[in-house]
Design a protein that fits this description.
Elements: H1 6-26, H2 31-56, H3 63-70, H4 74-84, H5 87-90, H6 94-115, H7 121-138, H8 150-157, H9 159-182, H10 186-213
Helix pairs in contact: 1-2, 1-6, 2-9, 3-4, 6-7, 7-10, 8-9, 8-10, 9-10
Organism: Candidatus Mancarchaeum acidiphilum
Protein name: Multipass membrane protein
Transmembrane segments: 12-40, 107-129, 187-206
Length: 216
């Protein structure tokens, strides 16, 4: 019998929820209900991270400890990072599965808004190129928790960077939903999209840089 990890189950659930969100967007369901559902889906990404660390620490990392780490407690952050780096030893596929869930979320939303003619095709092409090269280079490092340089840690794996990218994603995609469903002004959507794409590309550069550093 397969022993399904809580972290993996959470990833499967949030992926399924994202497919549901896409469907609701296309049929123009209540925009605010979709946005709340989207917020919960993004929050669940942190939840599967907690489950993974909790399992790796054999319960030593509590939810409170994990939250303290996320909001900047340096002592707890060091403990959490130490266990994060051991997750791949316990479940080699775990970190990769988590990334797959992240990619499904992004690609599904970008593809949806391109399909609906809310965004131009070149936007998703930039995202695909970025993720393809950055993910390939990061694979040489194992996981983002193993970033060594301060530059890449600040841009990619720091709590501030992770929170920042999630916040920008939430605001951008939520607004694009409002554009499609409630006819909000598209110009603001373009500005938010430009900010998000720039943020994603800059973080991708840090991943590629870290990947090249691993070969030195």
């Amino acid at each position: 019998m397969i022993n399904l990890r809580k972290a993996d189950l959470t990833t499967y659930i949030r992926t399924a929820v994202m497919i549901l969100i896409v469907y609701l967007v296309v049929i123009k369901f209540n925009a605010w209900v979709i946005i709340v559902l989207f917020a919960l889906d993004l929050a669940s990404d942190a939840l599967d991270g907690f489950f993974a660390v909790s399992e790796a620490s054999k319960g030593k990392i509590s939810l409170i400890t994990y939250i303290k780490s996320a909001i900047g407690n340096k002592k707890e952050h060091k403990r959490v990072v130490a266990y994060k780096q051991s997750v791949s030893k316990i479940a080699p596929y775990g970190p990769r599965l988590d990334i797959a869930g992240d990619r499904v979320t992004e690609y599904a939303l970008w593809a949806t808004f391109v399909f609906l003619h809310v965004l131009p095709l070149f936007v998703i092409l930039i995202i695909i190129v970025r993720h393809s090269f950055a993910d390939a280079m990061l694979a040489s490092k194992g996981t983002s928790s193993k970033m060594k340089s301060k530059f890449t840690e600040a841009l990619f794996s720091s709590n501030a960077s992770r929170f920042g990218i999630q916040a920008v994603k939430f605001v951008t995609f939520s607004y694009l939903m409002l554009v499609w469903i409630l006819n909000y002004p598209i110009i603001i959507g373009y500005i938010l999209t430009a900010i998000l794409v720039t943020y994603i590309v800059i973080r991708g550069i840090s991943e590629i840089y870290e990947g090249f550093q691993s070969y030195k």
